[in-house]
Amino acid sequence: MNARDRDRDRDGGGRARSARPRDGLGRPLPYGAAGVERQPEGVVRPPRETVAEAQRLLDRGMPFHAHEVFEDAWKSGPEEAAPLWRGLAQLAVGLTHAARGNAVGGARLLRRGADALAGREDAYGIDVAGLTGWARALAGRVAAGEHIDAAAEAPGLTGRPGTP
Questions:
Q1: What's the CA gap between 109 and 152, in Å, rounded?
Q2: How many CB atoms lie within 10 A of CB 121?
Q3: Three-state SS for 57?
Q4: pLDDT per residue over 66-104, tens digit each?
Q5: How far, rounded to the nearest angstrom, does the alpha carbon of residue 4 sit from its chain's CA centroid?
Q6: Taking 90 as the threshold, does the pLDDT of residue 24 lie above it?
Q7: Whether the Cβ atoms of residue 20 and residue 29 lie closer than 8 Å to each other
Q8: What CA–CA distances, in Å, run from 6 to 12, 21, 30, 111, 113?
Q9: Which residues contact 25 (CB under 8 A, 6 or more apart)?
Q10: Burial of 65 per CB tally in 10 Å (0-12, 13-18, 19+)
Q11: How far is CA 106 from the centre of its chain?
């Protein structure tokens, strides 16, 4: 092991994993700064619990953390549901980038997520068509240079703002 490897943060399994605290949009903060609690990785939840947890995080202006919840669902759930969870994760990451001020990346990911969800059936109470419309409209506003507040723009995953 070289000096560079020894200086890297590692998780319990020895994988490189930054231990720096993060803000609500997932941006790294200086060591010792107060950050928000990280989303645990690899949590297996029933689908409706996934939706509820992601909605809670979105409502708090934490779309980066919501994307991690969706990522866990696509990696741990049935293969046929993976495209739904992946599309939702892309929407959450798009909102994250938009709120961070990355208009190009935010609009691109919002559109990519909308494309991934387009034409899919509603599942687990998720209003797929409503989310697709929300993402496309937000992508247009982001691309036009509008400043985005993640909590104010949080979509209602089930079609009702702020409720799972």
A1: 19
A2: 8
A3: helix
A4: 999 999 999 998 999 999 999 999 999 999 999 999 999
A5: 31
A6: no
A7: yes
A8: 14, 19, 19, 40, 38
A9: 61, 62, 63, 64, 96, 99, 100, 150
A10: buried
A11: 12
Contacts of 146 (CB under 8 A, 6+ apart): none
Residue with tokens 């297996």: 44
What would you report as the CA-atom Rg of the chain, rounded to the nearest whole angstrom? Answer: 16
Residue count of the chain: 164
Q: Quote the Cα angle for 58-104-35, to 5°.
A: 40
Q: Residue 21: phi, psi to the nearest 5?
A: -65, 160
pTM across the whole model: 0.84
